[in-house]
Amino acid sequence: MSDHVETSEQKPSDGVVKAPGLKGVVALESELSFIDGEKGELIYRGYDIRDLAEHTSFEEVVHLMWEGELPTQSQLDALHRKLQAARDVPSEVIDFLRQVPDDTHPMAVLRTAVSALAHFDEETEDTSRAANQRKAIRLLARMPVCIAAFARLRAGKEPVAPLEDGSTAHNFLYMLNGEEPGEAAEETFDVCLVLHADHGLNASTFTGRVIGSTLSDMYSAITGAIGALKGPLHGGANVEVMKMLKAIDDSDKDPVQYVKDHLAAGERIMGFGHRVYQTMDPRAAILQGMVEALSEERDARHWYEYQMQILETMQTEKHIDPNVDFFSASVYYMLGIDIDLFTTIFALSRTTGWTAHLLEQWADNALIRPRAEYVGPRGKTVTPIAER
Amino acid sequence: MSDHVETSEQKPSDGVVKAPGLKGVVALESELSFIDGEKGELIYRGYDIRDLAEHTSFEEVVHLMWEGELPTQSQLDALHRKLQAARDVPSEVIDFLRQVPDDTHPMAVLRTAVSALAHFDEETEDTSRAANQRKAIRLLARMPVCIAAFARLRAGKEPVAPLEDGSTAHNFLYMLNGEEPGEAAEETFDVCLVLHADHGLNASTFTGRVIGSTLSDMYSAITGAIGALKGPLHGGANVEVMKMLKAIDDSDKDPVQYVKDHLAAGERIMGFGHRVYQTMDPRAAILQGMVEALSEERDARHWYEYQMQILETMQTEKHIDPNVDFFSASVYYMLGIDIDLFTTIFALSRTTGWTAHLLEQWADNALIRPRAEYVGPRGKTVTPIAER
Question: What is the ipTM of this complex?
Answer without folding.
Answer: 0.94
